Amino acid sequence: MSTSSSVSSPQQLQSHTCKWGLSAKCFTATTIENGGRRFYKCRRLGSNSCGYLNWFDEKLPSHVSMMIHNKKVELDSSRKNDVVWFVSLVT
């Protein structure tokens, strides 16, 4: 029986190139369907992107993806509330 490791080196995470020949950037998804999965994507934004996207990790169980997504939403909400609180103190 073999085992596999999900630990990856920085070299592994930077080894992909997009269709423009640029090194693709590694991101972590926070969507409901793919929360926690890492993927490579063209580093150019919007209409300048070549559309390159390549998943690095296998799909996680749905309850894990949902938990990661919910924590991201919670964190974003907390950050938004912190900014509103800070702005009201300053003004």
Describe this structure in words.
The protein has 91 residues and is α+β, with helices and mostly antiparallel strands. It has one domain. Helices cover 36% and strands 12% of the residues. The chain is built from 2 helices and 3 strands, in the order H-E-E-E-H. It has helices spanning 10-13, 62-90, and strands spanning 25-28, 38-41, 53-55. It has a 3-stranded antiparallel beta sheet, with no helix packed on it. The model is unreliable at 1-7 (pLDDT under 50).
What is this structure, in a nutshell?
The chain is of the alpha+beta class and 91 residues long. It has helices spanning 10-13, 62-90, and strands at residues 25-28, 38-41, 53-55.
Low-confidence stretches: 1-7
Radius of gyration: 17 Å
Number of helices: 2
Following the backbone from N to C, one meets helices and strands in this order, namely: HEEEH
Derived structural class: alpha+beta
Number of DSSP strands? 3
What is the number of independent domains?
1
Describe how the helices and strands are arranged.
Layout: H1 10-13, E1 25-28, E2 38-41, E3 53-55, H2 62-90
Antiparallel strand pairs: 1-2, 2-3
Features:
91 residues; alpha+beta; three-stranded antiparallel sheet; 2 helices; 36% helix; 12% strand
